[in-house]
Amino acid sequence: MRRISLRAGYYSALVPALFFGGIVMTVYLPNMGGSGLSLPLNILSWIALCCFALLIIQAPKVWQRYRRSASLFWLYAGCVVLVIRALLTPLPWFNDALIVAIGIVAGLSFYRLLLQLPWRRQHLFAILSTLWIASVLQCVIAVIQLFHLKAAAWWEFSPAQLRPYGIFQQVNVLASFIACGIAATLLLLLYRSKTTRWKRVLLHISLTLQGFVLYACQSQIGYLSTALVILACLGLFWPQRFIIFAAIISLVAGGILSFAVHVWLQFPTVVHTDSTHTRLLIWQHSGQLFSMHPLFGWGVGSFESVFLHQFGGQITNVGIRTVSHPHNEILLWLVEGGIFAAVGMLMLLIAIITLWLNGGRLQRAMLLTASPIALHMMTEFPLYQSAPHWILLIVLLRCADRPYSTSTMPMSMRWIRGGMIFFTVFAAGVLIQTLYLQNQLTTVERNGTQYELPSRAVWQTVLQQDRYEYDRQMGELLRFNHVQDINALRNVEQWAADYTLRHPDNNLYAVRIQIATYLNDPIQAEQLTNEARWLFPADPRWTVNRNTEQP
Fold this sequence. Notes:
single chain, mainly alpha, two-stranded antiparallel ribbon
């Protein structure tokens, strides 16, 4: 068999990766914000992952040898434990838990497919090059947003927004991605130190741009992640420390330039004291939730409801907001999955330690490139806000792995290819339908025409069932103003009671109170008012001249 040249191998990995990093990650579609599949970028990212999976499944090399790695067992074991815990979630939150389980299985399957590819050093450098280009593109978008240029309207960047967020719609998510890009730039400088001078100059210019945007984000996690990456690179590449010192100078120069621009244009400085205090309060009360159900937790997807109903909005200082995540992924699994889920997390940690111990210097460097995402997971929830972070984490973990061939792929395994193709195409079809539905929901929400929503089959709304049903019920309320159907009000109340149990919503409580008043049920109205006052103490609709007390 003719051996593929190093240059051909490099570009074979670079082209599909560039499609994702250079095209998909710059496409913005109108949306109403949020996280998960409410963001078109995340849906597009999952569609791109399905397309990449189909390309890998079709590759002949994938089905020639069966490849294993020392960490694979622990990855399988950890993911199986987490999926089992998700599937054992009680009914009120089962749909949310099922989506989490599907995400874990999809991520593990994609990792397993990548493991079948015989990647060499040039493929790893292709991944680093793609990450570098993607981070530079995000920096360009961020600069456009920072100075509120006309092109910022392409991303619906608000004139009131003071900090850029790139395509991610959240500042800290952009900052952690830029930190990953800085790590990739450092590694390209270290491993390409003998490359042409203009390429080295280009890398240093990009570091200056990344430093400029990193300061503009004013993100604590961005600063901390970058510092961690630099210190880790110094530890791994101490003999080449002068290259790293030169890179630090370029990075700091960008930060100083950004600081000067902020002073000159009188951009305000973000104070993180309140957010840090709130995060510490959430962690403290999350620990109390874990102590109440330590073995199996409250159920995957239950945190938002359980946290607010248990402690209320006054103690936790959340006002009229809800807390959907404790801002720490390990703590989330402890609360929702208990010690059972903690065993799965421990297995995943063992897998990462195994990657580090069995990897060479390049593999360990690839693992460190993923460290900003891992660190961000300890303070927020980037994997829910950004599917590109999830995909990047999987790819970088694969780059840190060193698989070995054990045997020829048995014929029975090759028959699985047809099933994999079917499920991947089916998943892509559902995601495309979800993207279309997201666009439709955004349109009716912005125009206030929820009553125009048509009925849809379950498979068409399965990934956005809560949001679709929310808009449909709001449409029923709008229609009630014309038809005055009392049964419609009762149906809305029945649905809203179930929805607020899973996802507390101050606007829905206001609707339920109005419905109870209209139906001449003062006891129900008073009960709902007390409950709303406990959950959302800063909402003036029920807090005027009343003390907050638990219902």
